[in-house]
């Protein structure tokens, strides 16, 4: 069995329907446990007070904002190289979820930054690259809506996604590249394991991150199914109009 | 409810806005999905009917 079998819309919808209950259930469970644990059962930070509880929303949302763009990049590359419609529609389906994660990261960051930094916003490398990523998401969604022919829209948005990937990378590594600004470096470097967050904050954060990841997956699977059905309905309508 | 001290407004605002946005996207996605299913069923019904 090959992975490419799931480029067939019918097979994709079948698999998606089978796994979605588990993904939605896992997302709900992890979000409930992670956020409730973080909000109710973790102590205040000795310097940041109770604002440390914002970490359970801010970090997972920022992580998914960037990862959503990378998922769209992979799907866009598959579309450009292999012309599988499901991959183009999956990228389209992921964009609203990615922009929402970006908005949550920006809003919670501003709310957290005001009492800690004394400002809602600073033209800091990470914040600025994140704002540009948000604008790329907006442009990506607007381009899908603006172009009538779906294949042309998929081509143009895939190219935009490739360009925007520069800012997704910058959003993740801006602190390291420029080593300046208000925003700190990552507290949970999963690759190296050298985290600076105490266990008491880390475990609920980890569960919340898994919850956000599963919620993203559930939403993308569901929304891709919606896009596939809308595409088929449009194709059938166009065929019947041509036949009439 | 934990004692959030002097930052209660900030913490509650962050949770309120985030959960509202997440719930909003889930509801809108489900609504659009149901509409798409109905549209496709109607078009396929017209084709076969």
TrEMBL record, chain A:
Domain of life: Bacteria
Key words, A-Z: Cell inner membrane, Cell membrane, Cytochrome c-type biogenesis, Membrane, Transmembrane, Transmembrane helix, Transport
Localization per Swiss-Prot or TrEMBL: Cell inner membrane; Membrane
Transmembrane segments: 21-42, 54-81, 93-113, 125-144, 156-175, 200-222
Domain Cytochrome c assembly protein positions: 16-183
InterPro entries, sorted: Cyt_c_assembly, Cyt_c_biogenesis_CcmC, Cyt_c_biogenesis_CcsA/CcmC
Membrane topology, from the record: Multi-pass membrane protein
Function: Required for the export of heme to the periplasm for the biogenesis of c-type cytochromes.
The family this protein is said to belong to: Belongs to the CcmC/CycZ/HelC family.
Name of the protein: Heme exporter protein C
Source species: Sulfitobacter litoralis
UniProtKB/TrEMBL annotation, chain B:
Protein name: Heme exporter protein D
Originating organism: Sulfitobacter litoralis
Membrane topology category: Single-pass membrane protein
Membrane as UniProt keyword: yes
Highest rank taxon of the organism: Bacteria
Coiled coil: none
Subcellular location: Cell inner membrane
GO cellular component, one term: plasma membrane
Listed GO biological process terms: cytochrome complex assembly; heme transport
Family: Belongs to the CcmD/CycX/HelD family.
Pfam families: CcmD
TM region positions: 12-30
Keywords attached to this entry: Cell inner membrane, Cell membrane, Cytochrome c-type biogenesis, Membrane, Transmembrane, Transmembrane helix, Transport
Functional note: Required for the export of heme to the periplasm for the biogenesis of c-type cytochromes.
Primary localization: membrane
